[in-house]
């Protein structure tokens, strides 16, 4: 009798790009500093926007799915392992 290679059941969600929630504000502030000086008063509004964004805090993490656990558990029953 020959061994049959049966692939494991697995669902993998697409990975989303993890951009910082304040990346736009930080980039705008760095651009302002590059075009003017760090102590320039024109960059104060951009700095306030970055500070406000960072004070909001992080959003709650997305709930992880447990589909792979159930597929592995049911796979043992279906595939007879």
Automatic annotation (TrEMBL):
InterPro entries: Ribosomal_mS37_fun. GO terms for molecular function: structural constituent of ribosome. GO terms for cellular component: mitochondrial small ribosomal subunit. One of its GO terms (biological process) is mitochondrial translation. This is 37S ribosomal protein mrp10, mitochondrial.
């Amino acid at each position: 009798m020959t061994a049959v290679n049966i692939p494991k059941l697995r669902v993998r969600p697409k990975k989303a790009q993890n951009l910082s929630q304040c990346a736009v504000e930080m980039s705008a502030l760095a651009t302002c500093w590059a075009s003017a000086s760090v102590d320039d008063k024109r960059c104060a509004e951009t700095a306030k926007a970055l500070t406000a964004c960072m004070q909001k805090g992080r959003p709650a993490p997305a709930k992880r799915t447990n589909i792979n656990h159930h597929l592995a558990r049911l796979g043992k029953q279906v595939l007879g392992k």
